[in-house]
């Protein structure tokens, strides 16, 4: 078996081939030291280049107000949930909830205001770590420095990862990062046999399994690595080594999986929720089952995630790695990325109902990451093989650079500019997209500053805007609000709840539904670039202060409000609110059933 390259006589055994050739027996120690220093130098240069690309994309607009329940949910849980039960009841596992809680507690201890930047910065750091860990992972997969650097550049501009970095509830970032670390540490232990690598592999695998409701692609991939290692030991016919393998497999794979399953099952028994409870609820609601017809939707989703140009390269890289690993006697470790990609995508594609999932692309982030790396590997390999054909080589380089540039432009447009050029790029990754300020934060400042605590407030919204978590975060009180209300229900909702509310927060486009209310008056007009975007309407008998101001000015006033000195904080709740909320839920349930 070749040990210094990417090939092997056995496709399975090649997954364990060392990524770097061992030094010759007569190589001086100084030569090995120079190799290490050279490796570190190339990585440092690549790190600087990648950070120049990755940091601006991820930090731009990190302070933007939350504009949907998904963006504000984690902040809402951290700010107002006591104890630890909510952590284990979290639908996507406890890992990100624990990290968010610790991060917010640290910010409070340091005296930092708990702004949107603080909550988003955690997932931003996780996403940046993902870019950085790509280098050692690709080197362990047998890639050259050029290929590893290309992979890092691709991850730096990958639209799905840029979108994740702006998503304060991005369990996908923790899910993907822990998976990459687990794969790297497992491969590293197979070569170096250092116990800390084995412990890290087991810990990362446990965290990975506890970071998503559908975390099974990576465990399947790691199982292949361990099986290949067992076969290699069996071929070497060393009984002592075989016995050592037993405890290695238990520590690195069996115990982490059993621990994760125990926590998942225990969380369900204790809270009725958690990852298992989330899956049961989805299937009970008819959101699961075999969905063969969704296969035809895969190309469209692929373009949404990669764009027109790089989508072709990513698909070609994935297919090439799949065919090489399964059929060729010169397969290499990149087949592990292909397996991770397919074992994550296929079950989700066949079992989950995409029509009942808000952001389908976010659930296939593992496949996106692996396919992107495989696409870059294929481009680099093709470039190397065309050394004797300079014109074709130059064309390959030009197309690859153009595709990555197109991908970067798609990320900037889709995530930071509202998707104005999506028809040109094809990229659509809406879960972390920064939207124009709609006055939600400004409305929260008005309520905190001018609305008495015993007044019942209702927020009018549809499937985005000032939903329940957003309203709680910005107003600091219990508000009549829900999730995903259909537009057709808003008129009837206002009519049926008129007698129970004192203040209504309404987007400008829905003002006609509120202006007809008897005894109410407009007390706050919130503008963006001189145009009204949101209003606050209140009973005239309350005599509330009248404000007409721009969102930027009101947002600055909000940021100047006192910072909480401890977590969790209490939500103000008027005495009549529980009864009003009960009626609100009943009315909403009735309106949802309307045709």
Strand sequence of the main sheet, in spatial order? Answer: 1-2-4-3-5
Low-confidence stretches: 1-26, 327-331
Largest sheet: 5 strands, mixed
Mean pLDDT rating:
88
| Approximate shape | globular
Derived from helix and strand composition plus strand pairing, the structural class reads mainly alpha
Q: Report strand %.
A: 5-15%
Overall number of strands: 5
Residues in helix, %: 55-70%
Termini gap: 66 Å
Separate helix tally? 24
Element-by-element helix/strand order? HHHHHHHHHHHHHHHHHHHHEHHEEEEHH
**Rg measurement, Å:** 27 Å
Oligomeric organization of the protein chains: single chain
Characteristics:
595 residues; mainly alpha; 5-stranded mixed β-sheet; 61% helix
Strand and helix layout:
Layout: H1 29-59, H2 69-80, H3 85-89, H4 94-109, H5 116-140, H6 145-157, H7 159-165, H8 171-192, H9 195-209, H10 217-236, H11 239-271, H12 274-284, H13 298-306, H14 308-327, H15 334-351, H16 360-363, H17 365-385, H18 390-416, H19 422-425, H20 440-450, E1 457-459, H21 468-475, H22 490-497, E2 503-507, E3 520-528, E4 531-539, E5 547-550, H23 551-559, H24 577-592
Parallel strand pairs: 1-2, 3-5
Antiparallel strand pairs: 2-4, 3-4
3D architecture notes:
- The chain is mainly alpha-helical and 595 residues long.
- The protein contains 24 helices and five strands.
- Strands 1-2-4-3-5 form a five-stranded mixed beta sheet.
- Helix 8 (171-192) packs parallel to helix 10 and helix 14 crosses helix 17.
- The longest helix is centred in the middle third of the chain and has 33 residues, at 239-271.
- The chain starts with 28 loop residues before the first helix and ends with a helix.
- The model is unreliable at 1-26 and 327-331 (pLDDT under 50).
